[in-house]
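> forwarded from #structure-qc
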């Protein structure tokens, strides 16, 4: 797992990922695997991301968690 910075502003997102395996039924049927938590932050001009996993990021404020979950629901409903 990527080491997340502690001194930078991090945003969190819940996302589905396709594994790319042609035989994978999960990806064939739907959005892929997940949702998984990802962290995004900027280092200078570069946007960096880190995989967190199935469990919500420890130390993230509840409001941040709620916002990411609301965004995921919007994606699921809107598609
Ligand atoms: Zn897959």
């Amino acid at each position: 797992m990527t080491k997340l910075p502690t001194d930078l502003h991090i945003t969190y997102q819940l996302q589905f990922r396709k594994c790319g395996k042609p035989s994978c039924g999960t990806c064939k049927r739907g959005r892929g695997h997940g949702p998984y938590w990802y962290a995004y932050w900027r280092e200078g001009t570069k946007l960096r991301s880190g995989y967190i996993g199935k469990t919500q990021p420890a130390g993230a404020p509840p409001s941040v968690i709620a916002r990411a979950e609301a965004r995921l629901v919007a994606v699921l409903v809107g598609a």
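QC bot note: The first strand starts at residue 11 and ends at 17. The chain has one domain: 11-78.
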